[in-house]
Write a structure and sequence with these properties.
It contains one helix and three strands; from the N terminus they run αβββ. The protein has about 120 residues and is an alpha+beta fold. The protein starts with 9 loop residues before the first helix and ends in a 13-residue tail after the last strand.
């Protein structure tokens, strides 16, 4: 009796499915981490852009804008919440976070209002 040896056995197929499952279990958490890092990079970029807008505003009027968005030179990226503390001629503080990330980024320049206590660090 001759056997037809074309195709895969059930054991071979199960081994391939298990290997694919293991690879997926490794790759999916890495992808989620990559997305959060991208959201954080967007928030950091908006903080830098808000600083540039504040400095441009200062160059024109020798005082900082009460709100970075009020300068007209700056718009936030999608999903970013940004705020500027009450600025003065001596400095300002900018805070930014992405709605899909638990991290908050801030910068304080000069002797502007302190944001210490207003921003909680993420674990």
């Amino acid at each position: 009796m001759l056997r037809d040896t074309r195709g895969f056995t059930l054991i071979e197929l199960l081994i391939v499915v298990v290997i694919i499952g293991i690879l997926a279990a490794i790759a999916i958490p890495q992808f989620a981490s990559t997305k959060e890092r991208a959201f954080d990079a967007t928030a950091k970029s908006d903080v830098r852009n808000a600083m540039a807008a504040q400095e441009a505003y200062f160059a024109d009027g020798q005082t900082y804008a009460p709100n970075a968005l009020a300068t007209g030179n700056f718009t936030t990226s999608t999903g970013i919440a940004i705020s500027t503390s009450a600025a003065s001629a001596g400095g300002y503080a900018v805070t930014a976070s992405h709605s899909s990330s638990g991290n908050t980024f801030w910068v304080q320049v000069g002797t502007g209002s302190s944001i210490e206590g207003k921003v909680q660090k993420s674990p």
